[in-house]
Write a structure and sequence with these properties.
Helices cover about 75% and strands about 0% of the residues. The protein has helices at about 1-20, 25-50, 65-85, 85-115, 120-140, 145-165, 175-195, 205-225, 235-260, 265-275, 275-305, 315-335, 335-360, 365-375, 390-400, 425-440, 455-475, 485-500, 505-519. The longest helix has about 30 residues, at about 275-305.
């Protein structure tokens, strides 16, 4: 399975390389080759228990698929913005690609350094790939961009040491690279923009995303350190938690956002949410869907208490939430993408806050949340945190957040790029859901070395093609310009990756589909 997963990733890397064909795509190919070899060193370290931190079990290291996400995303973003003539975001794409390559190289060097005996061939390969990448960066980046890349690396190193120690068994090395690398990049962008505020420059919704992500991460770090010294399950601790959340929210996060958008954040948010009648209708519709999702959680828990304490939610029951998410995102993508962007940020902040309440057993809802959510646990939730629902939200939202709006003057990219915001809906909402439902109920032919079935994968590909046809009918802004063969190939590769990867598919699949569609 690891070899097939690597082959699929290589195919996507070479597809992007064939389209872009510049020095950065050559660097991506070099990085992929060395990550393939280093991945086996990480796998060996995980099996022998010598990987410094405790990583998630029942999965391989996932270094190759995770290493290629940021570099490929930066390369395709650079190419799209160069074609649109937007120099600022072309340079931004180069910084994203360079940062991704440097973070992946750091993890590779770490694995090689702690492997005993020292793997000579892998060391040489990592040295050659690193030399090629650093030489390219030296001749492509300005001094300020080099400093920016090194800042992200520094934040990533410290954040990894803190969070991987505090949260054992929550991530594989690849997932840690993706999640913590993304958080490090966002934190660095927020610091950079806070120091260089220019009135009227930058979209408020982008600043809202940066502040929300950094705010909830800092909140979690603060309370994790605090509750080392006091019991988090008492009423006094719970009152202190709520009080300090309000203080940090109103005393740090709000003023920070005010400095960036130059107006009162609460008034701006209320004005934004209720600006048009369409937004009101969408908010009412989303509230109804959220209530039905909560109703499903309560119903399944009532069913468990009446049947058996050992009862766990079935795959089909868990995929019900995927259908709700699709029903949430599709109207937002068609009618108002900016509202969907902001609503997804708010939802992410709420999800992470509720996870803090559950994890720290904050009264009055902490223990209740633990009991309710334990029903929906699967083998990937082996650590102290429950992250699958947050990964689902991220997988659906990242294509919307990472869509290069400034490089798409008419609000959409030409050709297959028009489907980029729908990457999460197609890969996770439709593909992964249909594959799981049909595979678990009717699948008989297993893919070699996995539990996934041939029937599930084929049905997922077919369902995504039907979904693309429906998007063409209902969303008038999508014009594919006869790029159907590329879309079919992209959907097929990502569906096969879903069958073979042991990483969090909710996070990985939408990003790879977005990269392929943007290319």
């Amino acid at each position: 399975p690891v070899l097939v997963e690597s082959l699929l990733v290589f195919t996507m890397v070479l597809s992007v390389h064939a389209v872009v064909w510049d020095r950065f795509s050559w660097c991506a190919v070099a990085l992929a080759v060395q990550a393939f070899y280093v991945q086996f060193k990480w796998d060996r370290l995980l099996q022998l228990g010598g990987a410094v931190f405790q990583f998630r079990g029942a999965a391989n290291s996932g270094l190759l698929p995770a290493s290629m996400v940021m570099p490929l995303l930066g390369v395709v973003m650079k190419e799209r913005c160069r074609a649109a003539g937007i120099v600022y975001f072309e340079r931004f794409g180069i910084v994203v690609a360079s940062t991704g390559m440097l973070l992946a190289l750091f993890l590779s060097v770490l694995a090689v350094g702690i492997t005993k005996p020292v793997p000579t061939n892998t060391c040489i390969l990592t040295g050659i790939a690193g030399s090629v990448i650093i030489y390219t960066m030296k001749h492509s980046l300005t001094v300020s961009e080099v400093i920016e890349v090194l800042e992200v690396l520094l934040i990533f190193v410290y954040l990894s040491m803190i969070l991987l120690y505090l949260l054992p068994r929550c991530f594989t090395p690849g997932e840690a690279l993706l999640v913590l690398g993304g958080v490090s990049f966002v934190l660095n962008q927020l610091i950079k923009r806070s120091l260089n505020v220019v009135e009227g420059r930058g979209d408020p919704i982008d600043f809202f995303l940066l502040v929300a992500v950094v705010g909830v991460v800092l909140l979690g770090l603060f309370f994790t350190v605090l509750f080392i010294f006091m019991d988090s399950g008492t009423w006094i601790s719970s009152m202190f938690f709520h009080m300090m959340t309000a203080v940090l929210g109103l005393g740090v996060i709000m003023p920070w956002l005010y400095r960036l958008i130059q107006r009162n954040p609460l008034f701006w948010l209320l004005q934004f949410l209720f600006q048009t009648q369409t937004r009101l209708y969408l908010l009412v519709y989303w509230t109804f869907l959220a209530a039905s999702a909560c109703g499903m959680v309560f119903y399944q828990n009532a069913k468990r208490s009446s049947e058996s304490k050992k009862h766990q939610a079935s795959t089909i029951t868990r995929k019900y939430f995927h259908f709700i998410v699709v029903a949430t995102y599709v109207p937002g993508l068609i009618y108002d993408r900016q509202l969907l962007y902001v609503a997804a940020v708010l939802c992410l902040a709420v999800f992470i806050f509720l996870e803090y309440v559950r994890y720290f057993r904050i009264k009055p809802f902490g223990q209740t949340l633990r009991n309710l959510l334990s029903l929906f646990l699967d083998e990937r939730d082996s650590g102290p945190l429950i992250l699958t629902h947050i990964y689902l939200l991220l997988g659906m939202s990242l294509p919307v957040w990472l869509f290069p709006r400034s490089c798409a003057p008419k609000g959409t990219l030409p050709g297959a790029g028009a489907l980029v915001p729908y990457s999460g809906v197609l890969a996770v909402g439709v593909g992964d859901t249909i594959a799981s439902v049909f595979g678990s109920t009717m699948g008989e032919i297993k893919w070699p070395g996995t539990k996934k079935t041939f029937e599930g994968t084929m049905t997922a590909i077919f369902a995504q093609i039907i979904a693309v046809a429906l998007i063409l009918i209902f969303d008038s802004s999508v014009n594919l310009n006869s790029s159907y063969a590329w879309i079919l190939a992209s959907v097929s590769l990502v569906s096969l990756l879903e069958a073979y990867t042991t990483q969090i598919d909710n996070l990985l699949l939408p990003l790879y589909l977005q990269i392929m569609l943007m290319a």
